[in-house]
């Protein structure tokens, strides 16, 4: 069994990360009734013997003593991390996994990347090495951050670079929260585009997330609960937005519900690597199947269902509805409509009591309404994991490599150019040691190239399908 | 003679487990419908072939389990042990942690060389436990990374280490509509490599078995377990003991040799298809009665019409008229030409069955005498609760269309260079792909021109 390490950078990264660890514990607690430290747990948690204090040795088998998250928490302000350390998760992290500073990055990518990067480089490398040493077989780093700010964006991508240099064999999956159009950080386009260049070059897979896409489902769920229409028939802890038991809805912080969705995304992504199933789908398989060309590694994700009704019998049309929803516009985690764009590849990871025939039936049903690129007409990667998420009998995670990410990138580019043409706020960046005009021009050029690659693929959509002629053999 | 089975990857291990379960449950059953002496002889022969006796009395499967990640092997070992009726040797398995990521190149170029010694060591130990080694059976899929890539490497290593032993690869072909996106690349790489080291490839296609589950077995929510159990039944129907034609009174002592020598007369033609009838839900077995003439008639038409199962057979297809020299372009459409066939009959009144229709020269190419091109094995001992059961192992054009389809899709993807960087980073270059395509186009051409 392999292990993964989560690196959460910046305010957004740490808030999402916090939700992830909370839900991961809940999920494992539901499955692991006997309290034995098993392989599934070891993928994200260490089992530490704390009798001799915090520096106790790792226990690899037997009863759970003290679980520690395989994580690195990085923030250049103390507020968020301190809150985590005072909250219910304080025992899951130890002080050696934290890197904090006081003054923050001022929403400036250059401060995060160049100044703090340089300053904390050795510290970060040392802590990463320590975390890696505790792993028997480290397979993947998950980075969680936002693109629009300074720390998550700048220092986060600095860490991404570091990971490639220090651990080239380990996969780098990045969950990036992209800024919305009405973002209150004026320089978010700069920060995002500068970060994009790093993601283009150093990430294996990127899962872009947009706040608006998280906001809608959360709203819908609140409306449903408050209107009392479905009220008591919705299983409370089945909400994809709900936190572990204990925390009442009123006391949850405003972004908690949205962050829970992202946390669930990560849990579902790794479920097949942690639990058994009739068709396993490991993280290296996700990268292998969904990335046909090295730079086209942006995956649009959708999670269904968002909640379960209390009735336990699941007629198969409910199951089929789950598949249909996964392809609908309002279930995607970015503002995109994959149905009307071009699929390069698609992965479906199903959890729960779903069999291969259900999977195939739905693929057959949905295929005609989807456009796949000519050289990958049957581009489906599927996985079946027997263990469903908490509160559900089954769930589906769809990951699509689809040209519908293009509008997000084009908008980002437009917002960037609006500022850049006027050289607005540029001096905040250029005055930083190591930053030059060329950093900006290279970054925007990298983004333009990426958009162009998607354009070329889109151009093939709907065109006549000419299969290349086969090799001829002399008879 | 004993057969050592090597189970490779998730599919190989899941199927392998169902196979040994089916074999064991068959010999323990009381439905033999034959004399006690016959039954005992059958049980002994099966035990010698597939199991080892241990002090505890629980038969131990002659198998080596290989996978690059631990979950499936651990499940397989514990399921077998839980049955109480048979188990695997607790040391005969090899696994790693990371898996192969559906990457053939990773399985072949990285895992293969790295773990060759450890794996071959386990195989050697199993081989030494056999009084007489009858050969190797590998079970693998070709869509993923371990079964396919590492499987191809292990097959090569087996060939190198045991150059005179029989080597049969049981290969599972994936559903046409994706289980794995790069499945066609992995398939092309696997098939072309196996062609160079293996004696023959015995193929099962997921699509076909799925249809059997849906239409004949009436299973509503088909799982991989259901598919694997049908595959195990079909394999059992081939490998359980039988009397061969000239073999005297005992059960055949050379199952793989007896299978491979007549069926693979020419090295260019190694693809074997498998059909088994009747196939139905266990609950219907008690209410069904079959006659041998009926079964033989159906099986023959399945062969010549290239049908996948006993429903939906095209009865219009007829063999070409004998005696006229026919080029392949003049042959009747959809007619499936055979090089060689093997029919295996199990059950009541087997001695009275007339198989003359299978010896019709018009079914075959002209290279072999019809009496050499067709072989039959029989046993009065019924198999797996079927009162009568007939299997066909055929070296014919059964697999031509599916093979052509896989190569076509892979070529289409290759022309766009998609995913190639995933293979080149592990040392499989474009030229290697081209070599594999060439090998398979050659095979396709050969089978087309029968």
From TrEMBL, chain A:
Domain Tubulin/FtsZ 2-layer sandwich: 279-414
Annotated ranges, domain Tubulin/FtsZ GTPase: 55-277
Keyword annotations of the record: Cytoplasm, Cytoskeleton, GTP-binding, Microtubule, Nucleotide-binding
Presence of the UniProt keyword GTP-binding in the record: yes
Annotated Gene Ontology cellular component terms: centrosome; microtubule
One Pfam short name: Tubulin_C
Main location per the UniProt record: cytoplasm
Localization per record: Cytoplasm, Cytoskeleton, Microtubule organizing center, Centrosome
Record's subunit section: Found in a complex with TEDC1, TEDC2, TUBE1 and TUBD1. Dimer of alpha and beta chains. A typical microtubule is a hollow water-filled tube with an outer diameter of 25 nm and an inner diameter of 15 nM. Alpha-beta heterodimers associate head-to-tail to form protofilaments running lengthwise along the microtubule wall with the beta-tubulin subunit facing the microtubule plus end conferring a structural polarity. Microtubules usually have 13 protofilaments but different protofilament numbers can be found in some organisms and specialized cells.
Database matches in PROSITE patterns: TUBULIN (PS00227)
Essential cofactor(s): Mg(2+)
Superkingdom of source: Eukaryota
Listed GO biological process terms: microtubule-based process
Gene3D superfamilies: Helix hairpin bin (1.10.287.600), Tubulin/FtsZ, GTPase domain (3.40.50.1440)
Gene: Tube1
GO molecular function term, any single one: GTP binding
Protein name per UniProt: Tubulin epsilon chain
Keyword Cytoplasm included in the entry's annotation: yes
Family to which this protein belongs: Belongs to the tubulin family.
UniProt cross-references to SUPFAM superfamilies, sorted A to Z: Tubulin C-terminal domain-like (SSF55307), Tubulin nucleotide-binding domain-like (SSF52490)
UniProtKB/TrEMBL annotation, chain B:
Cofactor: Mg(2+)
SUPFAM superfamilies listed in its UniProt record: Tubulin C-terminal domain-like, Tubulin nucleotide-binding domain-like
GO molecular function: GTP binding; structural constituent of cytoskeleton
CDD domains associated with the record: delta_zeta_tubulin-like
GO terms, biological process: cell projection organization; microtubule-based process
Cellular location(s): Cell projection, Cilium; Cytoplasm, Cytoskeleton, Microtubule organizing center, Centrosome, Centriole; Nucleus
Main localization (coarse): other
Any one cellular-component term (Gene Ontology): nucleus
Keywords linked to the UniProt accession: Cell projection, Cilium biogenesis/degradation, Cytoplasm, Cytoskeleton, GTP-binding, Microtubule, Nucleotide-binding, Nucleus
Subunit and interaction comment: Dimer of alpha and beta chains. A typical microtubule is a hollow water-filled tube with an outer diameter of 25 nm and an inner diameter of 15 nM. Alpha-beta heterodimers associate head-to-tail to form protofilaments running lengthwise along the microtubule wall with the beta-tubulin subunit facing the microtubule plus end conferring a structural polarity. Microtubules usually have 13 protofilaments but different protofilament numbers can be found in some organisms and specialized cells.
Role noted for this protein: Acts as a positive regulator of hedgehog signaling and regulates ciliary function.
The protein's name in its UniProt record: Tubulin delta chain
Organism listed in the record: Rhadina sibilatrix
Lineage per the UniProt record: Eukaryota, Metazoa, Chordata, Craniata, Vertebrata
